[in-house]
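Forwarding these from the shared drive since the link keeps breaking.
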Amino acid sequence: MTAPVPTAPTAASPAHTLSVVIVAKNEARNIAGCIASASFADEVVVLDSGSSDRTAALAAQAGARVVQTDWPGYGPQVARGFRLATSSWVLSLDADERVGDALRAEILAAVRSNAFDGYRIPRLSEFCGRFIHHSGWRPDRTLRLGRRPVSGFTDHFLHAHMTVDGRIGELRHAIVHFSYPDIHDVLEKLDRYSSGNARDMLAAGKSAGVGKAVMHGFFAFVRTYFFRLGFLDGQHGLMLAVYNAEYTYYKYIKLMFLKSPPQRPEFPA
């Protein structure tokens, strides 16, 4: 269900103000562009968790309120940002995401409307230089915008997500997500995300083994490339299907070793 969009939004009132919350670490190549795309908000809050590059300085130069913090995990960090925000609405963005003009107008209209308490927003994501339109990556609707008093975030290590205690609507225009700009990012995120997901699976009491890792990896490829029409994304769809298979395989292998760490063998006589 989509909220009605007013044709002529009025000036923001205290009940219709918006804070954009961005959590970041070592995002110097992304942070200024993200903040620029969010400049329509009443404030932009960047939570920097000990960057060793110029993330914090660039964020401040771009006009954001920068808060230096520790790293309690993605979900708790975003929830902390919601508490630090001062507006009546909050929008959660990652540093590698951008808000275009059409989405900006839609967000401002939604904030000034009383139709819903939160909104799911679709995402258009990049994989090695190409936007992916199939493969399970579209429309990728995710809850990102909500009234601050009723908005929170789960505390999962990897797949934390926003929560809104109230009515949920959907926006039409997409957040642009520069998620995997090159193969280095693909390999780095494969390792990091599979480790994080293994930790969440361990906390959830999931089981693992080599056979399960192979089986789930195989079906991840089939699901991405065939059932979710990844073949329509050309060679990038094939690469993404292989990535999903590897990611799935490794998260189960890592879970197996979290549950039963490998032991160094005896030195042979």
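-- next protein --
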Amino acid sequence: MFDKDAYPHLAEIVDTLVSIWPEHTRFLEKSFSERDITLMSSTEQRAATILAMVGRNNIPEYCRDYRTLCNMLEDEELYFRRHGAYRLKYFEDAVAEVYSNKAFMNSYMNFIALSYVLWTNHARAMAHFEENYIPNIRLGSHHLEIGPGHGLLLYIATKASNVASVTGWDVSAASIAQTKKCLASLGVTKPVTLVLQNLFDAPDEGGRSPRFDSVVLSEVLEHLEDPVSALRAVSRHMAENGRIWINVPINSPAPDHIYLLRSTEEAVDLVATSGFKIIEHDFFPITGTSLKRARQWNLTISAVITAEKI
């Protein structure tokens, strides 16, 4: 599958998962065969972070949660293929089924954390954030992540020398607790402000200039009924020429996904229509397929878009 001596932290996670779910081996072989040395090195670094965050004794629990959620995603995929739409239509339904269920949210966040190591598209998105986005935001940036969840992206921001302050907003108390736990486990010393906050209810700056030079929306827009309004709301809290990093999936059914984007072009247009200048975009297809095939068969693609407030 890969050289376990060269990537020992990754090997520890993969060996644990395979012992729990041997049928997943073929998927993992495909996933790692698609990665070059640079991405494998990034994946190994992420695996080391997850082990430090989780604790080795808890990796089996994370792997069991990963398996459970993958099976749930298969059910959502079946619905999507039959109906050409996501199962949920309204945010309040996602709140009732997912966000207000602390036990489920914990399992969901565990699954997502491992997916950034195990899924090719998620691993590429994470590497893009760390290697392309964060180094290019302005020195002394005030950084906001909306929906930090597992906390891995927020952790990367805390390590960056060009980031002066770090803030996270989330509508889920369970998610906020997970983020706090992550940062504490990783020994983060830079102050981080975590707020139980709905974006649409966030207070304005009281006459002051908007404070955030950098904003992250990673796998958030698909959870909303009106992502254009959300992006415009985000813009009100951004400094002039502030940058935003958006990671949004195309054709990606999940237990709490509401807004369906059917193409990468639609995703880019969504951001531009919301009043942002597109700086760059990258598209990462789901494990085991090419971008061309993913577009042809409406398979999941992670659309990563960097934009600037106009």
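Residues 59-83 form the longest helix (25 residues). The mean pLDDT is 94.

- D.
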